Structures are given as structure tokens and as C-alpha cells.
Amino acid sequence: MTPQNIAETASVAYRSALEVIESVEPRIAAATRAELTDQRASLKLIASENYASPAVLLTMSSFLSDKYAEGTIGHRFYAGCQNVDTVESLAAEHARELFGTPYAYVQPHSGIDANLVAFWSILATRVEAPALAEAGVKGVNDLSEDDWEKLRARFGQQRMLGMSLDAGGHLTHGFRPNISGKMFHQRSYGTDPETGLLDYDRVAAAAREFTPLILVAGYSAYPRRVDFAKMREIADEVDATLMVDMAHFAGLVAGKVFTGDEDPVPHAHVVTTTTHKSLRGPRGGLVLATSEYAEAVDKGCPMVLGGPLSHVMAAKAVALAEARRPEFQTYATQIAANAQSLAEGFLKRDAVLVTGGTDNHLVLLDVSAFGLTGRQAESALLDAGVVTNRNSIPQDPNGAWYTSGIRLGTPALTTRGFGHDEFDRVAELIVDVLSQTTADTATSGASSKVKCTTAEGVNDRVRAASAELLDKFPLYPGLEL
Ligand code: DSN
Predict the structure, then answer these.
(1) Which letter does DSSP use for residue 240 in this model?
(2) Does residue 24 sit within a domain?
(3) Which of 82, 127, 213, 320 is the most exposed place for a label (fewest CB within 10 A)?
(4) Ligand 1: which of 44, 45, 46, 48 to mutate, judged by most atoms within 8 Å of the beta carbon?
């Protein structure tokens, strides 16, 4: 099918679907239409968002949703799962081929779920299996009450080392507000206070001192690449399992922008990701593992996960098939090139970037240089039609709620077709808004970190300029609701 045929056929499919939905709950049909209108009209710079293809989106709207299929391929707790087996096998095969890994598990419903499966697989392999062997039994039901209590105590003693939140790490890497922080004793490694860059000697020193069971690498707000070969050396030295959460940059791995030591798959024992960020698939997660951990990962449902979302696994298969096409490599290369253009656009306008730039898909702008908190910058930009999210910067004086940074990513607008000139213009528009926004100093306490005012006329000017850019690169061109 040509792109034009696809758009026309998808238009018919969406219009028909919305008419059916409208007959039951018109407000849902209206909100769905409004979401497309809003997404079409805004500059989407949230680093973790993207636009999936009509093929991916349509795949999720199917009868596969109605089937229960707890268990794994060929080994389900329900009868009649032959089609789900086909779907899950295809998604796993595409993932294995795309990432060059012996084993892929495509059931996780999200990134958090994928990480929970990974944590469980490491605990099962490194804590539970040796305890069962020591006791000379096959399963936990065969353990005596005493041995069971000892095993439970051993689970509670395990340690995890991950990147600190303000350096760009993720909440699920052992932080207290997340279940991972309650499961593990946690310590974090930060970045060099001068450069903002990962310092592998510091990571190694922290690993030697803390001797974690799990060394977590990966980030959601670090604008640089990671040397996973070095991280593996550190893990091996302290007998830790290296787990990489590549949720943010999976598209750059799939698209062969990150290769060699920057590709986590050959180096990590377990790799997790979401499928909807730079990978441009449906919302969901997946886990890749070496054969040592595969058996435990395969028991993710019902150990950690509820019944698989078969319609979403089908959409993962479609998205992964797309990511195996040569044009996905072009797309991934453009994501990184566009992040460079965005960073250069800021730097030439004297804005301050954490680490001084980027070499992945995101840029972290320090908005304290504009006299604003991240919260103020986020809302000022939103008023001008620029969708971003606030984010902590290293040693952030404003904490994780108000923050001093704005995180900006290029995957979504690259999907629309933006290139160097457009991202330079985006930097110009953002600097235009932020340099003409002032914090509301008349207020005190929390309000002083929230309230701000943008000079008259700026928002209208920026909205008009954005509309001009967006009109050149329509979202889902030809798709009419
Ligand atoms: N919510 C994702 C992000 O924005 O980075 C990660 O959880």
C-alpha cells in the first residue's frame, strides 16, 4: 500500500470506529477526536513520547483483547490460546532478530512491569535457585517453614545500585517512592559535579563498597551515551548482575545508532525497555535476557504480571517489524542528529544545557539561567503550545517537584519529519518564551516556584510560528476524522 492508500483506508477505519463508539459514549469519541486535534497542533517535545503508525494503532483495536492467556507460549493456564501463541511468538521473534538476543519476553504492560519481571528473574536465579539447591528441593512449596523464612530473609537483604534521580536515573531503579526501593537496599551513583557526565571510576568505587546484587544502568533524563562494556566490567568485578533499562533509547539501539560498547544488549545480563518511546510502538514493555535468566523471565506472568494484553503484543509485533526495516535506521539516525541541532540552537542563544550538549535523543535545559523553576518554564511553554516536561538537574536546589530543568526530546517531531532547520527554530521559540517570562516575585513559598508571567504577545507569536512549522509536517497526513 502507498502512504496515501494507507491514510485513506485508516481514515475510513477510524471514522467507522468513532461512529460505533459515539453510539455508546459520545464523550469518549469526542475526547479521542480532540486528542488528535491537540497533538496535531502542538510541538511535542516530551522525550518519552512518539506517534505510532496507523498500523500499530489499529492492531490494538482487535478481538485479541478478549482472550485470557496467562502463562507463556505453549504453556497457558487457559484453553484456546493458539492465536495468542502465534502473536506472542511473532512479537518475540521480531524482538530477538531486531536486538540480536537469544531471548525476548513481550508480555510486560509497561516499563515498570518490565523492570519488575527483570528484578524477579534476578532474584529467582541468584537467590531462590541456590536456596532451593541448598535445601535439596525442587520448589518453594517443598521448603520447610524454617528454610522458607530464611529465604524470605535473604530476599530482604539484596542490594541494588542505580543512577541517582537527579543525574537522570529512573524511580524504578531502587528509589523509595517505588516498590523497587522497598524490595532492595539501594544506593545510587551520580555524575561528575563539574561536567555532569557519568564517571565510571566513581561507579566502580560505589560498586566495590556496596557490592550490589544488581547494577542498574540506563536513564530517563541523561543526555549522553553510556559505555555498557565498562558497566559490565564493573558488574563482573563485584559479581553483580548488569541490568540495563533502555526504555528511552531502545529506538537508537534498534536503529543502530548505538552500536558496540553503546549497545547494551551484548553486555547486559538482562535488558528492559518500553515499546512506545523512541521505538515508536504501542504502550508496553519487553525484557531481553541471556539464557541464564530466560527461564525466570518467562515466568513473569502470573508471577509478577497479570494476563497478557494480546492485542498489545500484536501491536508490538507490528512495531518491531517496522523497526526492522531500513527506514527505521534512517529515522533513528535523524533523532540523534535533531537532538544535536536542538542543542546547538540553544547554545548559540546562550542557554545552559546539562553536560553542555547531547549525543542521544534528549536535551536537558537548565532554566535557572532564565530565573525560572522547571515548573514555571513547563507551564509558560505549554501556554505557548510547546509541550515539554520539567525535570530535575544534578544537585537540583528545587527538588524533584518544582525542579530547575526542562527535558526535551526529538523522537516525536522527528517522526513528523522535522530536521535541522526546524529544530533550530524550535530552540529559538523556546528561548523566546523563556527569556520573556518572569517568575512572580510578589508571591512567597510554593507559589513563588509556580507562578510566572509571559510578556504580552509572545504566546501568540510563538503559536503562530509553531503552526507554520507544524503545517509543513502534518501528523498522520491524509487521515481525516
Ligand atoms: N514516564 C517515562 C518518562 O517520561 O521518562 C519514564 O517512566
Answers:
(1) P
(2) no
(3) 82
(4) 48
CA distances from 218 to 126, 199, 235 (A): 22, 14, 14
- Are residues 133 and 242 both part of a single domain? yes
Q: Could you tell me the end-to-end alpha-carbon distance of the chain, in angstroms, rounded to an integer?
A: 20
Evaluate whether 404 touches 393 at the Cβ level (below 8 Å): yes
Q: What is the pTM of this model?
A: 0.96
pLDDT in tens, 161-185: 999 999 999 999 999 999 999 999 9
Residue range(s) defining the domain that contains residue 220:
65-323
Ligand 1 close to Cβ of residue 111 (< 6 A): yes
Q: Are residues 296 and 349 located together in one domain of the fold?
A: no
Question: CB–CB of 179/123 below 8 Å?
Answer: no
Dist. CA 411 → ligand 1 center (Å): 14
CB 406 within 8 A of CB 433: no
Quote the CA–CA distance of 80 and 388 in Å, as a whole number.
44
CATH label of the domain that carries residue 415? 3.90.1150.10
Last-in-domain residue among 277, 292, 323: 323
User: Which ligand 1 atom is nearest residue 49's CA?
Assistant: 4
Omega prior to 302 cis, within 30 of 0 = yes
Give distance in angstroms: CA of 45 to centre of ligand 1. Answer: 13
Q: 436-473, pLDDT tens digit by residue?
A: 999 987 777 777 889 999 999 999 999 999 999 999 99
The total number of structural domains in the chain stands at 2
